[in-house]
Design goal:
heterodimer, A: mainly alpha, MetI-like fold, 2 domains, about 85% helix, B: alpha+beta, 3 domains, six-stranded antiparallel beta sheet, about 60% helix, elongated, disordered C terminus
């Protein structure tokens, strides 16, 4: 008791010193962050063609001109929507096919690089690095290089997005698989099942709901990616968008129709996938 | 007893139904996916694509990405022989640097050694290609076309027409057209990567350069050799290391401003949109729709709309990322705030704290780790997006990459940029991971 009371001022002082030190560190971090932010803003401003303050005033000019043209040709709107449905379907197909392909590759890569499940435990770092590289390569580079070899069309974009998906999903899948229960795997091993059977019957049923929900999330991201790749020349609705934009003059009504289609699609897919993901996580509990 | 048995049977039936459903799903889902892939296979016309694929393009691409060629060209009109890397003006060899496998005995003459006993002789406006088996191909450009004398039984690929002759050897090629004779030879590696040919340090070996770097003799009397080398490397006109470094910085800056700017804006908005902090239901509902709109419109559309107002450059890219991420962060932040523990806030309130203090000491410490780790995660992923957005708005490394690809011949530079991008993304990945564990010590990262 006496000891405690005697130590109390020390403890108090130490606590205050600790707090002060923590505050100082946070303060320094904050100052560095603000400086970095200001410097970056300055640099970006100086290397941009138009300035920020000039641009912010005219930021609504373009949407306004698109809208006014859209209003003046409102009667053509349903026709425009129908006209661009095929390219929207192509964009969605690119996204869906690349998600499925990428997820298949990702499952294999993830299982091969998960401790406790890997077929060749020594090669785990190799597969992990492979996934890192697949994730790091920008889709646009793969797509443009493949366009040079394969010619234009949806396939280069599909391959590019599938490769990226394999890397991104592989990492997430491997984190899920790490938490899988190993007992079924051991049981299967004890009755002489090979690696593929152990994985297919022992691991996949445990992790499938999680894998599925990650894959759906990825599908949303891939729709955006395939629209962007279309914009740089890989077909689909992105390509139409660029055409209606660059030819300018009188095609903004079509651009507006594409904007709306893309927006509606992304929101719809977002809602549908979040509904299914909720159901998946509900069945798991 | 009967009740129990009845209950058992009911449970049994339920279990059977569950099994049946699971079995159906586990077979059905993969089957649907497989059928869909078959449909896509034909919808995308993959069989036709295989026929149309340009495998020769693929070969050029692969060969170019790790090797370079040196062209020896005779222009028949000027009668001059030029030696240039990749046949570009920027790669033109000055007289004293011409490699020793090319002999230029007189004006308009050259003897080019092509390895393994093969060589080409350019003389009197014609070319003699001596093959390793002793056979000689002769070709002479005339005003009407190309006259060529081909020996019998050649075992090298020769492509000959009235106006063009192409002989492809293992690491070399001879092309003769009406206006020029061109001999080119492939070498491994990226040429002029360190110094372009205008630099005083070009064409020297590593040991020579090291001796220069630490010796007292100055190549350029105005500055020390080390600075001279750095300057020439940085200003390399072929590889443009300085510009590329700036482009990388621009790309990272786009992600930085976009992500952290969005986080700063989204934090107060997140409070307004969270169920337990929202001042009114209307504000909450309205803000949620705004977030959905910002996210739903997608980075691509924001990029297009903003580049009309702000012009091309990194600022436009930053703002496009900022707008999209405002929506994402607003949603994530408000959800995190809804999951805060109210007891901590009440504890702070019990000490007589006002509203700002309650947020500062009751809420922020609870949510900060989760929010920061999310923001850092998005920072890393936005670095990658900034590459693509840069290609559209015309800023950063994405622009360099797409431009190099569009030329369809600078594949060695494409390879260089891709390697740099991979390194950049990996560095950002480990940096954000390191910061996350440092800043959020002891908290499980979601």
């Amino acid at each position: 008791m006496v000891d405690l009371a005697a130590h109390a001022p020390d403890v108090r002082q130490e606590y205050m010193a600790l707090t002060r030190r923590r505050r100082m560190y946070s303060g320094i971090l904050l100052v560095i962050f603000v400086l970095l932010m200001v410097a970056s803003f300055d640099l970006a401003e100086s290397r941009n063609a138009g300035g920020f303050w000039a641009g912010i005033r005219s930021v609504f000019d373009f949407p306004a001109s698109v809208l006014s043209e859209f209003w003046s040709k409102i009667d053509e709107f349903p026709g425009n929507i129908v006209r661009f449905l095929p390219s929207l379907a192509e964009t969605l197909n690119i996204a869906a096919a690349s998600t499925i392909l990428g997820a298949c590759i990702a499952v294999v890569l993830a299982l091969l690089s998960t401790r406790g499940l890997a077929r060749w435990p020594r090669l785990i770092p190799v597969f992990r690095r492979t996934m890192d590289i697949l994730r790091a390569v920008p889709e646009i580079a793969v797509a443009l290089v493949l366009i040079f070899v394969l010619g234009g069309g949806p396939v280069p974009a599909m391959i590019a997005i599938a490769l990226h998906t394999a890397g991104a999903l592989g990492k997430l899948f491997s984190e899920v698989a790490e938490n899988a229960d190993l007992k079924p795997v051991e049981g299967l091993a004890s009755v002489g099942a090979g690696w593929i059977k152990r994985m297919y019957l022992g691991v996949i049923p445990q992790v499938a709901p999680n894998f599925l929900s990650y894959a759906m999330l990825r599908f949303e991201i891939n729709i955006r990616a395939s629209a962007i790749l279309g914009f740089v020349g890989a077909g689909g609705i992105g390509y139409d968008l660029r055409n209606t934009m660059t030819f300018g003059r009188g095609m903004f009504d079509q651009a507006a129709a594409i904007f709306l289609l893309l927006f509606a699609t992304i929101v719809a897919v977002d809602q549908i996938s979040s509904y299914f993901r909720n159901r998946l996580s509900a069945t798991q509990r | 007893m009967t009740d129990l048995a009845l209950g058992d049977r009911k449970r049994h039936q339920e279990a059977e139904r569950l099994f049946a459903r699971k079995r159906l799903l586990s077979v059905g889902l993969p089957a649907v996916a497989a059928i869909y892939l078959v449909y896509v296979f034909f919808a995308f016309d993959v069989p036709g694509l295989v026929e149309r694929a340009r495998l020769d393009n693929a070969q050029i691409l692969v060969a170019d990405s790790y090797s370079h060629k040196t062209h020896v060209t005779l222009d028949t009109r000027s009668g001059e022989v030029e030696v240039a890397i990749e046949g570009e003006i920027k790669g033109l060899y000055p007289e004293h640097l011409v490699p020793d496998w090319i002999n230029q005995p007189a004006e308009g003459e050259a003897r080019v050694d092509l390895g393994s006993g093969q060589f080409a002789e350019i003389r009197d406006g014609a070319v003699w290609l001596h093959l390793s088996d002793g056979k000689v191909i002769e070709a002479r450009p005339t005003s009407k076309g190309v006259e060529s004398i081909l020996p019998e039984g050649l075992d090298v690929p020769v492509n000959v027409s009235n106006t063009r002759l192409t002989v492809t050897l293992e690491d070399a090629r001879l092309t003769v057209t009406r206006t020029r004779i061109e001999v080119l030879r492939y070498f491994f590696g990226w040429e002029m990567f360190w110094f372009d040919l205008q630099s005083a340090y070009a064409g020297r070996s590593a040991t020579e350069l090291a001796a220069l770097a630490f010796g007292s003799e100055r190549v350029d009397p105005e500055r020390h050799n080390i600075f001279g080398m750095l300057r020439d490397f940085w200003n390399n006109r072929v590889w443009r290391h300085g510009d590329v470094a700036w482009a990388l910085v621009e790309t990272v800056i786009m992600a930085f401003i976009g992500t952290f700017g969005a986080a700063i804006i989204a934090l107060p908005l997140g409070f307004l949109a969270a169920r337990n902090f929202a001042p009114s239901l209307l504000a909450r509902f309205g803000l949620r729709r705004v977030f959905d709109f910002l996210r739903g419109v997608d980075g691509l559309i924001w990029t297009i709309v903003l580049s009309r107002a702000f012009g091309p450059g990194p600022m436009t890219g930053s703002l496009a990322i900022l707008l999209t991420e405002c929506g994402t962060f607003g949603k994530i932040f408000s959800e995190a705030l809804e999951n805060t523990d109210n007891r901590q806030i009440e504890g702070v309130r019990a000490t007589g704290a006002n509203a700002v203090q309650r947020y500062r000491f009751g809420v922020i410490p609870q949510v900060m780790p989760v929010l920061l780790s999310q923001v850092l995660y998005y920072f890393e992923s936005n670095t990658r997006s900034a590459t693509i957005i840069g290609a559209i708005v015309g800023g950063g490394i994405g622009l360099f990459l797409t431009q190099a690809i569009i030329t369809q011949k600078d594949w060695e530079q494409v390879a260089y940029y891709i390697v740099l991008i991979i390194i950049m993304v990996m560095v950002m990945d480990s940096l954000s991971g390191w910061l996350r564990t440092r800043l959020i010590k002891g908290r499980p990262v979601k």
